[in-house]
Amino acid sequence: MEASQAAGSLEASFRITAAPDRRGTILKYKADRGPIAYGVAVFMLRLTLWALATPLICVISVLPLAGLSVFIAPINHHHQHVNSFRAAWLNRLYDLLLALQCGVAPYGWVLHHNLGHHLHYLNQPPHESPDESHWTRADGTKMGIFAYSVHLFLHHQIDMVRVGLRHPRQFRYFLLMKLPLWGLIGVGLWLRPLETVLVFLLPALLTLFHTGWATYEHHAGLTPNDHLDASRNRDNRLYNALTGNLGLHTAHHKRPGLHWSLLPELHEKIRDQIPEEQIIKSFW
């Protein structure tokens, strides 16, 4: 009885509640105004280039657009954990806008990341239920960052299907949202094929590869016992401002359904329980 009370008390200390003034009427959280504005602005830039720019300008724009989308990828991640809008139809439109810039289809994060990685990230191969974003090979040896990124890039669609078969409702949404996504890409390829590849598809694929590269440090090489020692954290103000507190990764894994704007409060509550060597102060 005393042990269960202690566990309940510990879990209660992890509870974070947003103040009413941080909630929105159209948005669930007012903090999402900035990320949404950024994502829409970059999307409008893409549309302008797609419609008006010469092929040469589009070629020159590939890397800058991928660089801009590097910061949209964590926005997409956060949105898939806690949808930004109160209205479902707005969330699905926003899904498409983010997918076209990040290379991850709507509900792809939900399957691979929320229902895959978050449930299994403590398990690395050769575990029978391994992490979908695993950093060890089948024999248990550690992958390097390049091998990890390539493996994730090439295998994520297969993993989405595998996880989806265990979660048919989310898998159905994933397949249904492929229709408008592929429809938009198809229209773009029909009207302006080269510009569609250069402005949308190629930068999105580069962004997707970078997403794998950037996430390698979160867990690679760690042998955790529980959530509190399973992640590296970048406790750097600029890094977390640009990534929506993605550097506070232990807090995120402890409460994956917590909105990104509330992670600093949880991080402060658990910081002294995280191994000091797993807290990095630098940006890089």
Report on this model:
The protein has 284 residues and is mostly helical. It folds into two domains: 31-221, no CATH class; 231-284, no CATH class. The chain has twelve helices and two strands, in the order H-H-H-H-H-H-H-H-H-E-H-H-H-E. The protein has helices spanning 2-12, 33-52, 55-69, 72-81, 88-102, 108-120, 145-166, 168-191, 193-219, 237-243, 249-254, 263-270; strands spanning 233-234, 279-280. It has a two-stranded parallel ribbon. Helix 4 runs antiparallel to helix 5 (88-102), helix 7 (145-166) crosses helix 9 (193-219) and helix 8 (168-191) packs antiparallel against helix 9. The longest helix has 27 residues, at 193-219. The radius of gyration is 20 Å and the shape is globular. The relative contact order is 0.13.
SSE order and pairing:
Blueprint: H1 2-12, H2 33-52, H3 55-69, H4 72-81, H5 88-102, H6 108-120, H7 145-166, H8 168-191, H9 193-219, E1 233-234, H10 237-243, H11 249-254, H12 263-270, E2 279-280
Parallel strand pairs: 1-2
Helix pairs in contact: 2-3, 2-9, 3-9, 4-5, 5-8, 5-9, 6-7, 7-8, 7-9, 8-9
